[in-house]
Recover the amino acids of this structure.
């Protein structure tokens, strides 16, 4: 019973948020130029594959959640294939998070004024050496 609830919690904690993050980044592709036909074809292929992965994660999450909740209610043991589907679901969720589910990187914020340098850290001025 405890393992069943842990599998259900694992689906709720990783694949479902990854599904939301991935659907937000489905159409984003940095460097895409709509003027180039080759870019357009590759963009369509990438969006189609991303959509397929999202659909697969959605289906796997639904099957695993229905199985685990049903097994917890009926107090029966889970079928071994549910654990395999759970592992596949988690791996695909990690693929989504690492590849296209990430947020865009923000530019590095630089300070308005550089830190002042002390006299000892400045380079010596050009000219004859002081004796």
């Amino acid at each position: 019973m405890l393992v069943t609830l842990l599998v259900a919690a694992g689906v709720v904690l990783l694949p479902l948020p990854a599904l939301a993050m991935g659907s937000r980044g489905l159409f984003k592709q940095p460097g895409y130029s709509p003027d180039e036909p080759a870019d357009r074809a590759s963009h369509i292929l990438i969006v189609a594959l991303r959509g397929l992965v999202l659909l697969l994660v959605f289906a796997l999450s639904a099957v695993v959640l229905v199985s685990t909740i049903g097994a917890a209610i009926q107090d029966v043991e889970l079928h071994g294939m549910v654990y395999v589907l759970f592992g596949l679901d988690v791996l695909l969720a990690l693929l989504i998070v690492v590849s296209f589910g990430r947020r865009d990187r923000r530019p590095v914020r630089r300070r308005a004024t550089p830190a002042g340098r002390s006299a000892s850290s400045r380079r010596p001025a050009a000219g004859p050496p002081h004796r």
Notes: The mean pLDDT is 83. Helices lie at 2-13, 15-24, 37-74, 80-98.
